[in-house]
Amino acid sequence: MTGWTTQIRPERIALFFGLLSLTGCGTWWHGDHQSVTIFTTPLDAQVVVDDPVHLLAPGTVSLNRKDDHQAVITKRQL
Fold this sequence. Notes:
The protein is rod-shaped, with a radius of gyration of 24 Å. The protein is built from two helices and five strands. The strands form two sheets. A three-stranded antiparallel β-sheet has the order 3-2-5, with no helix packed on it. It has a two-stranded antiparallel ribbon with strand order 1-4. It has a domain at about 30-78. By secondary structure, it is α+β, with helices and mostly antiparallel strands.
């Protein structure tokens, strides 16, 4: 009976790790935060994201990718 004798070539190792890196988490490539721009009609609406973040639309906020977020948009009183 013959045993399995397989030589692992460097090209196969590189291919394996290359494919493995493509299946990884998006955090590796894009970080754990993402900028989100909020546009409203009419302009200058008040936006509250996750309670502590207040801005007037249009505006950009940086949000953690791993958490759920809630935005409340209200018409600004003049």
